[in-house]
């Protein structure tokens, strides 16, 4: 008849569970579980804990708890009788007291020699067995867990660096926003003649003393600079939106510079003028319309 340890070991192996896995699942130390499977119950632990751990282990292996505890009580009773007899023998000196007859099949009967030898051999194999061989699946699981943990840490660090870089770029853009480049007078070469040159071909310096108005309107967004040529005075400077117009009082010829000259329309004396060029350009307008700029000698 199998004893308690054999039944525990057989149930555990039948379910493919290692000692380490059982200890983690039951929260009972693995050396206590080994003592239970080796049928050793005289290790240093209070009796209430031994009973509790044995019930937990039996329940985990799906064994009959009541029968398991009944057999355990029988083992304790047998052990107490053996201790009592030993004390009686020591009390009466060399007097040999007859042993009580044991019932066949009783849990108090000593195991046969073969079973005892098998237990000793099994205990020796357990002590010599390397931990990696006994708990191989659990160790492999721990290695996989460590590898996944390293991967997660690496991804977190990389993501942190990427996030810091993006934040630095965003802060840089917010602190120093780039303004649109202003076209300057020297940035472009003035055209030889505007789209609609007056038939007379009036020179830019022919109407320096005359006063009048000029209206600048835009069909699309553009940066516009209007400068009076006789005294280099700025009449208008800024960004204009689509549909915006500005009427300016001027004396003599004016120069109109724009970052999108194709969007700029100039109105003089009820007539409108628009360049057929694109991009950043400058044009000159006298009192009657576009003029050719004066050339320096």
Automatic annotation (TrEMBL):
<dbReference type="Pfam" id="PF13413">
    <property type="entry name" value="HTH_25"/>
</dbReference>
<dbReference type="InterPro" id="IPR010982">
    <property type="entry name" value="Lambda_DNA-bd_dom_sf"/>
</dbReference>
<feature type="compositionally biased region" description="Basic and acidic residues">
    <location>
        <begin position="125"/>
        <end position="141"/>
    </location>
</feature>
<feature type="region of interest" description="Disordered">
    <location>
        <begin position="180"/>
        <end position="203"/>
    </location>
</feature>
<keyword id="KW-0472">Membrane</keyword>
<feature type="transmembrane region" description="Helical">
    <location>
        <begin position="149"/>
        <end position="175"/>
    </location>
</feature>
<feature type="compositionally biased region" description="Basic and acidic residues">
    <location>
        <begin position="93"/>
        <end position="102"/>
    </location>
</feature>
<feature type="region of interest" description="Disordered">
    <location>
        <begin position="93"/>
        <end position="141"/>
    </location>
</feature>
<feature type="domain" description="Cytoskeleton protein RodZ-like C-terminal">
    <location>
        <begin position="216"/>
        <end position="278"/>
    </location>
</feature>
<dbReference type="GO" id="GO:0003677">
    <property type="term" value="F:DNA binding"/>
</dbReference>
<dbReference type="Pfam" id="PF13464">
    <property type="entry name" value="RodZ_C"/>
</dbReference>
<protein>
    <submittedName>
        <fullName>DUF4115 domain-containing protein</fullName>
    </submittedName>
</protein>
<feature type="compositionally biased region" description="Low complexity">
    <location>
        <begin position="180"/>
        <end position="200"/>
    </location>
</feature>
<keyword id="KW-1133">Transmembrane helix</keyword>
<dbReference type="InterPro" id="IPR050400">
    <property type="entry name" value="Bact_Cytoskel_RodZ"/>
</dbReference>
<dbReference type="InterPro" id="IPR001387">
    <property type="entry name" value="Cro/C1-type_HTH"/>
</dbReference>
<dbReference type="InterPro" id="IPR025194">
    <property type="entry name" value="RodZ-like_C"/>
</dbReference>
<keyword id="KW-0812">Transmembrane</keyword>
């Amino acid at each position: 008849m199998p004893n308690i340890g054999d039944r525990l070991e057989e149930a555990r192996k039948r379910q493919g569970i290692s000692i380490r896995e059982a200890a983690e699942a039951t929260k009972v130390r693995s050396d206590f579980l080994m003592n239970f499977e080796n049928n050793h119950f005289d290790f240093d632990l209070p009796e209430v804990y031994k009973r509790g751990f044995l019930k937990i282990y039996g329940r985990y292996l799906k064994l009959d708890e009541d029968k398991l505890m009944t057999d355990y009580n029988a083992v304790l009773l047998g052990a107490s009788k053996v201790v009592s007899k030993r004390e009686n023998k020591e009390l009466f000196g060399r007097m040999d007291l007859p042993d009580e007859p044991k019932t066949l099949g009783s849990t108090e009967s000593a195991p046969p020699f073969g079973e005892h030898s098998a237990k000793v051999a099994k205990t020796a194999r357990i002590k010599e067995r390397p931990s990696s061989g006994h708990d191989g699946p659990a160790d492999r699981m721990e290695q996989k867990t460590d590898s996944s943990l390293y991967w997660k840490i690496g991804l977190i660090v990389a993501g942190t660096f990427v996030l810091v870089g993006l934040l630095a770029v965003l802060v840089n853009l917010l602190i120093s926003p780039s303004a649109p480049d202003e076209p300057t007078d020297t940035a472009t070469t003035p055209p030889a003649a505007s789209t609609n040159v007056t038939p007379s071909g009036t020179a830019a310096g022919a109407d320096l003393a005359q006063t009048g108005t000029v209206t600048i309107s835009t069909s699309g967004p553009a940066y516009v600079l209007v400068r009076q040529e006789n005294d280099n005075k700025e009449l208008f400077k800024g960004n204009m939106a689509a549909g915006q117009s500005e009427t300016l009082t001027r004396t003599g010829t004016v120069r109109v510079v724009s970052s999108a000259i194709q969007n700029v329309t100039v109105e003089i004396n009820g007539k409108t003028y628009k360049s057929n060029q694109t991009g950043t350009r400058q044009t000159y307008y006298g009192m009657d319309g576009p003029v050719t700029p004066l050339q320096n000698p």
